[in-house]
Amino acid sequence: MAAAPPPPAAGGFVLFLHGSGGSGEEIGAEVAPYFAAPELASSVRLSFPTAPTAPIACYGCNLLCCFALWMLCKSCDAVITAWFGIAEVPITAKTVRDEKEVLKAVEYVHGLIDKEIASGTSPSDIFVCGLSQGGALAIASVLLYPKTLGGCVVFSGSVPLRKSFADKVSPEARKTPVLWFHGMADGLVLFEAGHAGCAFLEELGMTCEFKAYPTLGHSIIEEELQYFQQWILNRLGISGITETARPSSSSQHKDLQ
């Protein structure tokens, strides 16, 4: 006799991927408070995995980029957390990654999604999100996943795949809505990269809501996280949240992308 399917898991599932040089714990400290209200505790489950560490050759790092980045990369091969290799900085609309590494990371994310669905969560209640390199991995994972998910949210990211991958994006994946945040003053993942990424999604027939911030650099701020929170809750059909715990300050995150 076939085993009975698992009962549906309650509420939604948000998978959030950090940027290179970061960790799940660090980005979780920024994001989790927005879903910490008692009335959300059983409605939204969060996951913040940490990327493996690897020696990453850093290109173009100097004091003009940013001091923290330069300090991290002053050795030729910095050992940092990263989902895949870093081709260059800054990331532009024409930057090309090692697609084998990107696809390996996508397989890892797909495994996490598959595990969540196997536990009973509906694909329509699963959200894949990320910051910078994590955002790039999030959108690549959604594009190549064979089912329609609840949504994808990209903070200061880019599409890390060539347009030739358009043929591999299934009709179901194209129905997944995307929310994209990007600062126009971003010096590490240039605004043009984010804008081109969203335009590519629209060429695929996908819905991409793009929110630009004129003075924002490569950071994640409270205004973005508040909008992100509401976007997720709206898609889960959760309303009436009167109070949400929020961090005292926004992150000034800077990574290598």
Short description:
Pfam families: Abhydrolase_2. This is Phospholipase/carboxylesterase/thioesterase domain-containing protein. With 257 residues, the protein is α/β, with parallel strands linked by helices.
What keywords describe this structure?
single chain; 257 residues; alpha/beta; six-stranded parallel β-sheet
Please tell me about this protein's structure.
With 257 residues, the chain is of the alpha/beta class. Helix content is 29%, strand content 17%. The chain has helices at 24-31, 67-73, 99-118, 133-143, 191-203, 222-236, and strands at 12-17, 44-47, 53-57, 77-81, 126-131, 151-155, 178-183, 208-213. The strands form two sheets. A six-stranded parallel sheet has the order 2-1-5-6-7-8, sandwiched between helices. The protein has a two-stranded antiparallel ribbon with strand order 3-4. Helix 4 (133-143) links the parallel strand 5 and strand 6. Helix 3 (99-118) packs across helix 4. The radius of gyration is 18 Å and the shape is globular. Mean pLDDT is 87; it is low at 59-71 and 247-254.
